[in-house]
Amino acid sequence: xxxxxxxxxxxxxxxxxxxxxxxxxxxxxxxxxxxxxxxxxxxxxxxxxxxxxxxxxxxxxxxxxxxxxxxxxxxxxxxxxxxxxxxxxxxxxxxxxxxxxxxxxxxxxxxxxxxxxxxxxxxxxxxxxxxxxxxxxxxxxxxxxxxxxxxxxxxxxxxxxxxxxxxxxxxxxxxxxxxxxxxxxxxxxxxxxxxxxxxxxxxxxxxxxxxxxxxxxxxxxxxxxxxxxxxxxxxxxxxxxxxxxxxxxxxxxxxxxxxxxxxxxxxxxxxxxxxxxxxxxxxxxxxxxxxxxxxxxxxxxxxxxxxxxxxxxxxxxxxx
Length: 320
Prior knowledge:
By secondary structure, the protein is of the alpha+beta class. Among the domains are: 3-120, HU Protein, Chain A (Irregular); 247-319, Sporulation related repeat (Alpha-Beta Plaits). It has helices at residues 3-11, 59-68, 72-90, 172-221, 258-270, 296-309, and strands spanning 16-19, 23-30, 33-34, 39-41, 44-50, 95-97, 101-105, 111-115, 131-132, 247-255, 276-277, 286-293, 315-319. The strands form 4 sheets. The chain has a 4-stranded antiparallel β-sheet. Strands 1-2-5 form a 3-stranded antiparallel β-sheet, with helices on one face. Strands 3-4-9 form a 3-stranded antiparallel β-sheet, with no helix packed on it. Helix 2 (59-68) crosses helix 3. The longest helix is centred in the middle third of the chain and has 50 residues, at 172-221.
């Protein structure tokens, strides 16, 4: 059983993943930041370990039971067996959790945890990496020669030129203005860059949605000539109600059979998803959604978690 893999998957969803009778992995969220030397870091979650939190909260066992298709009690026994093995190995060697970190005993026989830090467990930072900007080059102003007007017949002049101040003005304020403008431009580029990345993800997902719908229609209806069969049906199809505002759904599949669609919804609800019927397509297929959300951000986050963390087949649909 790959217990460490299940722990890593749960850290994307929960702030605390407890291993009964062993300890708990905790995540703490941090906002995006910019260091004085120009390094940019996206939002992230810092990982820690607390050996005092050993009470079973049921999250890990329930998740293993779903993944391995076993009972909750059997999942608890598997965890207990794995934890017993970890405690024995920890006395002589280092425990490594791929993608999470390492646990060892120090000289005082206390547990020390070292996170690997290679994986960002914050789903809102998907696709974002840290980077450093190049420093702004300072330019030295070129002093132009000053032409002093020679004194001529003062009677022919309407005014007398004032004496020039021989003291050179310091360019400090000029450098300060350049620095302020540079920082403002960098902040604006980071903000609009992050917004552009998010919008591009949504645009690409909508393009993929159109292609998926075309393939589903072709695969479903290119059947040739079939004999006509008359069937008396009494079941009334269940459809999503008319919407007074846009909803954003993560689609699990499209079904020609209403019975199969209802079975899929029951299966998803048993796994804990807020499954429901989405709007049927133009050809009458019943769409089943993992969930229907009021914002694009919620739907896209759920979609990326299903595809890249759980490796499930899903696609995005905007309902109007």
